[in-house]
Amino acid sequence: MRRLDPCATIGAVTTPAPVVRPMQTHDAESAARLLGGVFAHDPVFAALLGGDPSSRVEPAVALYRVELSRADPGSVDVAEDPDGTFLGVGLWQSPREHPRLLTELLGLPRIVGALGLRGTLRGARHDLAVRRTRPPGDLWYLSSIAVSDAARGRGVGGLLLRTRLATIDAHELPAALESTTAASRRLYERHGFEALARVRSLPGTSSTMMLRPAAHTP
C-alpha cells in the first residue's frame, strides 16, 4: 500500500502522516465500531432503523461485524497514525466477490439479529435497488468508507480512496459506489467518480450510483 511522506504539517504543528494498510484480524472490531458509529447518522440507516442516531449505533456496529467477517481481507483498507491510532477504514468488494445466495442465506440470522426483522426487510429492499443500478461486469465496489471524528480535516478519507484507486488503476478496472449524501458525492467527484443513476429504494433517501471509468495506461 502507498505511504505518504513521514511527516505532514497540520496548521503550525508537524505530525506524522497517516499510513494505509490492509486490515488485519485484530482490526475488525475497531473497524466495525467506526463504520457503525459513522453510518448511524447516514440517511439510509435512518430509513432502515428509524429512531435517533444514538439508538442506531449498536445495530449498525453489529451489521458491520457481519459484513467484515465475510469480506475479503485484501479488500479492506485501514488508515492509522504511526503510533497505531485507528483513523479510518474503507470496505471494498473486489471483482471476484460476486454475491453468493448460499452465503447470504447463511448470514441472514445474524443480519436479522443486528437489524431486526423490519430493518432486515427494508435493507433487502434497498440492497435490491442498489444491485439493479450497479454497473455490470468486473469492477471494484466501495461498500463503505468512514473516518474517525479525531481524524476529520486531515485528508484521511481522500488518502484511503487514493491508495485503493491507485491499485485499481494499475489493473485498468472501473470502480463504483453508492453515495448517500451531497457531501460524499462531492468527495467522490474529486476522485473521478461520476453520477450514473439514482437509487430508488426507501422513502426519505436520495442515493446516487457513481462510476469511475477504468484508467488506461499506455
Portion in beta strands: 15-25%
Radius of gyration: 17 Å
Counting helices, strands and paired strands, the structural category is alpha+beta
* Number of strand elements: 9
Q: Judging from the principal axes of the Cα atoms, what is the shape?
A: globular
List the secondary-structure elements in sequence, H or E. EEEHHHEEHEHEHEE
Enumerate how many helices there are, as a single number. Answer: 6
**Termini distance?**
23 Å
Which parts are unreliable, with pLDDT below 50 for 5 consecutive residues or more? 1-12
On the 0 to 100 scale, the average pLDDT is: 88
Largest sheet: 7 strands, mixed
| Helical content class | 40-55%
Instruction: Going across the biggest sheet, name each strand in turn.
Output: 3-4-5-6-7-9-8
Layout of helices and strands:
Blueprint: E1 7-10, E2 13-16, E3 19-22, H1 28-39, H2 43-49, H3 53-69, E4 76-80, E5 86-93, H4 101-133, E6 140-147, H5 156-170, E7 175-179, H6 182-190, E8 194-199, E9 207-212
Parallel strand pairs: 6-7
Antiparallel strand pairs: 1-2, 3-4, 4-5, 5-6, 7-9, 8-9
Helix pairs in contact: 1-3, 2-4, 3-4
Written account of the structure:
The structure is a single chain. The protein has 218 residues and is α+β, with helices and mostly antiparallel strands. The protein has 6 helices and 9 strands. It has helices at residues 28-39, 43-49, 53-69, 101-133, 156-170, 182-190; strands spanning 7-10, 13-16, 19-22, 76-80, 86-93, 140-147, 175-179, 194-199, 207-212. Strand 8 (194-199) and strand 9 form a beta hairpin. The chain is globular and about 45 Å long. The two termini are 23 Å apart. Mean pLDDT is 88; it is low at 1-12.
